[in-house]
Amino acid sequence: MKQWLLLEIAEKISKKNPLHAKKIKNTLKGYSEKDLEGIEYFLKKYMTYLTKINKDLEYGINCYLRMIADLTYEQVRFMETGKYSCSSFEEARQKVYNNPQTMESYMNALMLSQFLWQHHYRIFLFFLNSLPQYKDKIKRYLEVGAGHGLFISEAVRILEDDTYLGVVDISPASIKMAREFIDNSRIHYTRQDIFNFDTEKKFDFISMGEVLEHVEEPVKLLLKVKNLLNDHGLCFITAPANAPAIDHIFLFKNQDEIISVISSAGMEIIDKVCAYAEKPQQGQDISAQKIPMMFAAFIKKTGNRQ
């Protein structure tokens, strides 16, 4: 059997956290060889990035396991209280976004989770496989919240060479990682709060992955994004439900609540997908089980034809 880099990562994790490694290995059983080939490609890009910043795979794994420890604490608290521990954007800003070391570790951990967690990988594939069908209509592309840079790195590859590519993010550490991971001069980076970001030229496409849960008023955020779109523009959004983390603020309990935010902002869904971190137990209310879920959708302004 081919020695996939993803399997090597799982083995390295098993030496440091055997219990969590069992969960990862169970996830890997659900991947096809085509999945593994795709993941291998992205992980090699990640390894190139690590070399560039004078780090190695052990660093990435340590970041990931640090996040797992944080998530375990947050999950236990969430199950006890039904609330996220972070209550305001300002609290998250001081605790995470303005802390370079915390943010760097967090983004590296999330990069690995994109492939080690099946529901994260499914969302990424949804974006990856869907974006090409819209490429002919995209001349101006914006990503709100660059994160680790994985999504916009693929937008660079898929979209035409004359497409304007922009990123707006409040975290200098996030922008730094995206720059180093992608290493492409075509991308224009802006360090700014999205609510203060403005431009005379509207965008044909806006990608906003896992941002809605980081604000107190997600409808207000989506209205801001809607205002940055041209009349026939499209937006790709993702948001988790029942997913406590060190910087998550707004608690979505199910996909219906996310869809309600989309509708309240005067937008409608073109296509969507929903993926759970674990298989829900049959015969029980999914929301009551509080299983982390990822929701993703391509949306447009209500009533506009594509």
Describe the structure.
The protein is α/β, with parallel strands linked by helices and 306 residues long. The protein folds into two domains: 5-116, no CATH class; 118-301, Rossmann fold. Helix content is 50%, strand content 18%. Helix 9 (172-182) links the parallel strand 2 and strand 3 (187-191). Helix 6 (100-116) packs across helix 9 (172-182). The longest helix is centred in the first third of the chain and has 25 residues, at 57-81. The mean pLDDT is 94.
Rg value: 19 Å
**Number of domains in the coordinates?**
2
What is the H/E order?
Answer: HHHHHHHEHEHEEHEHEHE
- Class inferred from helices and paired strands: alpha/beta
Name the shape in a single word.
globular
Largest beta sheet: strand ordering:
3-2-1-4-5-7-6
Number of helical segments? Answer: 12
CATH class identity of the largest domain: Alpha Beta
| CATH homologous superfamily label of the largest domain | Vaccinia Virus protein VP39
Q: Fill in the CATH topology of the largest domain.
A: Rossmann fold
Low-pLDDT stretches? none
Give the N-terminus to C-terminus distance in angstroms: 46 Å
Arithmetic mean of pLDDT: 94
